[in-house]
Amino acid sequence: MSDKQDENKDQPTQPEQAEEPAVREQPVEDSKSQEAEEDDVIELTPEQMMALELNHKMQNEELGEDESDFQTVGESDLGDEEELEEGEILEQGQIEDDSIQKFTEHKESVLSITYSAVQDKFISGDLNDKAYVWELEDREVEGEEEKTRELKASKVTSLEGHTESVDLIQVSYDGKLLVTGGNNQVFRIWNCEDSTLPAKSVFKDGPAEDMYFLSMHPNGNVGLTGGKDNMLWMFDSGNGKFLSCFMGHEDEVLHGMFTRADKGKTVVSSSADCSVKVWAPIKQ
Question: What are 257-272's pLDDT values in tens digits?
Fold first, then answer.
C-alpha cells in the first residue's frame, strides 16, 4: 500500500451531507386581497357596478316590480354629478315639474291657501303681506287637429290692508265670509258674496302676541284663534267684535278647533305644555 493511501486511511471519514428538501415557494398575496378577505369587502370597478345594476333591473322586470318614482343621477341629466353619487336621489327642486298650471303672482313664500265654494275661487297669502284671490279657468284651446281643454290660473283681485305676513286664512261655515290673519295680530274679514270681496270688518282687540291658528265655527259666524300668549280667543267673524278668551294652558297654544257633533258647543285645544284641553264656551 502506498504512503498516500495510508494517509487517507488515517484521516476520519466525513459524513455525507443529506440534500435539503426543496421548499415550495408560496405565492405572496396582495395586501388588498388580504384586507378584502378579512373584512369581506370587495371593491368593484365601475364596469362591474354597471353590470350588477343591469342585472338587478332585469330581475325586477322579470318579477314585475315597479321601479322607484324618484329620478336618480343615473336616470337624469339634471344635477351636478360631481356632488351627487351614482344612484343618489335628486332634490325635489331638480325633479321635473309635473304640475299642470301655476299661479305666479306671489313674490315671497306662500304661507296659506284656502278655497271659497261660494266664489269658486282660491285665496292665498304670503310673507310679503299680500293676499290674492285667484281662479282656475277651464277653457278650450284650438289645436291643429282638434280642440283641447286646459286650466288657466288667473288673478281676480288682491286683498289690501295687511302690514305683516298673511299666514292664516279661513272661510266661514256658509262660505259668505273670508277671514285673513297676519303676524301683527289683526284679522281682516271680507265679504265673499260680492265678486270683488270688499273688506267688511277688522278684529284687532285680541292677542298681543303671535297667533298660530285660525278655526271657524261649523254652524255660525265665530272665529277661534290662539298662540304665543297661552290663551284662546273667540271673536265674531261677522263684525269683528271680541267675544271671550280662555285661560288655563301653561305654554303656547298650538291649535284649537270647534267640535261638530254638538254643533260647535265645545272647543278642543292643544298646547306646548303637553296637554289637550276641552272647553265649553257655549252652555249646553
Answer: 999 999 999 999 999 9
Largest interatomic CA distance in the chain: 151
Residue type, 27: P
Q: Cα separation of 87 and 84, whole Å?
A: 8
DSSP designation for 3: H
142 within 8 A of 150, measured Cβ to Cβ: no
Residue among 185, 184, 162, 175 at smallest CA distance from 218: 175
- Residue 264 contacts residue 223 (beta carbons within 8 Å): no
Q: Are 266 and 258 in contact (CB under 8 A)?
A: yes
Distances (CA, A) of 185 to 56, 109, 148, 166, 196: 57, 19, 46, 10, 24
Helices (H), the chain: 3-10, 31-39, 46-63
Which amino acid, one-letter code, is at 182? G
* Inter-CA distances, 79 with 2, 49, 90, 144, Å: 103, 21, 7, 36
Ramachandran assignment for 60, one of left (phi > 0), alpha (psi -120 to 50 degrees), beta (any other) = alpha
Taking the whole predicted model, whether its pTM rises above 0.90 is answered as no
Match 286683498 to its residue by C-alpha cell.
Answer: 159
CB-based contacts of 158, cutoff 8 Å, min separation 6: 105, 130, 131, 132, 133
What pLDDT score does 250 carry? 96
